[in-house]
Structures are given as structure tokens and as C-alpha cells.
């Protein structure tokens, strides 16, 4: 029986040596390099192994929001642009009217104000000083002139300059900002398509005066 005992011990020792020399599966480190596969002379890199970032759904959708459009205008009145829209709709076309505002460069109003202060507390101090002198004013809370103080809008330049001079006599800095007159323009807009050729463009424009067709980049029409 003793020889059986020693045989079992020797067998266990041999098994331990074999297992110790064999590579452990837990020590395997995957290769993160791109894997290339030969396919008919072309090299194909597997996306699962390559370091490639695919666009997200939102990013892909954002890339489809713009398209090319024909625009007809400018129309001085919204109703005239909508007549062109009605003609397009009668032809089974989807289109829209858009409004743009342009500065004319002509002064419309003169805004008297105290430039932005370093803090709201400083602006309040100036506000109380102005109101104590019976000058209508309020603190500007947003925009480029936030923490400044507004003293009013004037159509007459001389009236604005007179108030500025009066306020400066009290030791309060005051300035004038000119607000330009804005002119509205209206444009008929329709997506570019092979079907919307010169013949249909002429039918939409009809006999409208002082307008022309242009091609621009535009946002997609809502469905």
C-alpha cells in the first residue's frame, strides 16, 4: 500500500509542474490595434477593433436641417409675398414667407443712458440720485448695457442732448446711443427641386414688380 501512496504524491507533483508552466487564460491582453482582413486584394479594417467614432443620431440629424432654396423678393409688404405663396400653393407646391429686418442707417430714436456700472449696488446709487432729482430712469438688467441706467428714448436729438448735459452737471456720466430705423422685407421661399424649373418660377412670380429670384441656403420646411 505504501507504493500506492508515493505514486499518488508523485502524480500530484507532476500535475502542479505542468499547470505552473502553462500560460494562464487570465493573463491574456487583447490587442487594441485595428484588425485588417484581406478581401480580394482590399484591406478592410473592422469597426469593432478600429478606433473610429461614429456620429450620434442627433449630429446626423443636424446635418440634414439645411438645404438649398429659391427665394423671390424683396417684397415691401407681407401681403404681396403671400400672394406669391398662394400662387405656389395652387400649383401644389410647399413654400413659405420669411421676414427679415434691415437697419436703414437712419436714426429713429436716441437712447440716453448711464453706461454699465461695476455692480448693481453702484447702479442703484445712481438710480436713487436721478430719481431724487425727478429724472425718470430704471436699471438695465440684461444685454450689452446691463447694470447701466436708462433715462429714456427720444425722437428729437436736441432733447436727448439736453438731458445728457443736465445729468452730467450732476456729476453723473451719461451717453447717447442711436437706435437706427429698421426696414422689414418679405421673401417667398421654396426648396430647390428638379420639378421647380423656370416655367413654374415664372408662374409664381407672375407680374410682380421689383423682385427677383435668388438661390440661398435655408432651413428645411416643417412637415
Describe it.
The chain has 223 residues and is an alpha+beta fold. It has 6 helices and 8 strands; from the N terminus they run αββαβαβαββαβαβ. The protein has a 6-stranded antiparallel β-sheet with strand order 5-6-4-7-3-8. A two-stranded antiparallel ribbon has the order 1-2. The chain is flat and about 110 Å long. The model is unreliable at 24-63 (pLDDT under 50).
Which spans have pLDDT < 50 for at least 5 consecutive residues?
Answer: 24-63
> Which descriptor suits the 3D outline?
flat
Structural class: alpha+beta
Radius of gyration: 38 Å
**In what order do the strands lie side by side in the largest sheet?**
5-6-4-7-3-8
Per-chain topology:
Blueprint: H1 2-21, E1 36-39, E2 42-45, H2 57-62, E3 66-75, H3 78-90, E4 96-114, H4 120-132, E5 138-139, E6 149-154, H5 157-169, E7 175-191, H6 198-205, E8 212-219
Antiparallel strand pairs: 1-2, 3-7, 3-8, 4-6, 4-7, 5-6
Amino acid at each position: 500500500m505504501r507504493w500506492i501512496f508515493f505514486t499518488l504524491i508523485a502524480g500530484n507533483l507532476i500535475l502542479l509542474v505542468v499547470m505552473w508552466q502553462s500560460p494562464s487564460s487570465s493573463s491574456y491582453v487583447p490587442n487594441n490595434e485595428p484588425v485588417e482582413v484581406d478581401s480580394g486584394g482590399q484591406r478592410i479594417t473592422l469597426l469593432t477593433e478600429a478606433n473610429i467614432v461614429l456620429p450620434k443620431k442627433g449630429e446626423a440629424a443636424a446635418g440634414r436641417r439645411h438645404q438649398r432654396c429659391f427665394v423671390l423678393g424683396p417684397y415691401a409688404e407681407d401681403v404681396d409675398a403671400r400672394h406669391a405663396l398662394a400662387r405656389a400653393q395652387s400649383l401644389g407646391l410647399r413654400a413659405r414667407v420669411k421676414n427679415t429686418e434691415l437697419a436703414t442707417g437712419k436714426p429713429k430714436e436716441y437712447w440716453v443712458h448711464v453706461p454699465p456700472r461695476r455692480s448693481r449696488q453702484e447702479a442703484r446709487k445712481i438710480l436713487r440720485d436721478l430719481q431724487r432729482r425727478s429724472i425718470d430712469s430704471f436699471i438695465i438688467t440684461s444685454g450689452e448695457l446691463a447694470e447701466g441706467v436708462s433715462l429714456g428714448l427720444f425722437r428729437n436729438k436736441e432733447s436727448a442732448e439736453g438731458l445728457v448735459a443736465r445729468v452730467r452737471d450732476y456729476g453723473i456720466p451719461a451717453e447717447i446711443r442711436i437706435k437706427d430705423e429698421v426696414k422689414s422685407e418679405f421673401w417667398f421661399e421654396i426648396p430647390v427641386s428638379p420639378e421647380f424649373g423656370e416655367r413654374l418660377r415664372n408662374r409664381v412670380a407672375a407680374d410682380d414688380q421689383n423682385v427677383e429670384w435668388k438661390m440661398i441656403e435655408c432651413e428645411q420646411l416643417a412637415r
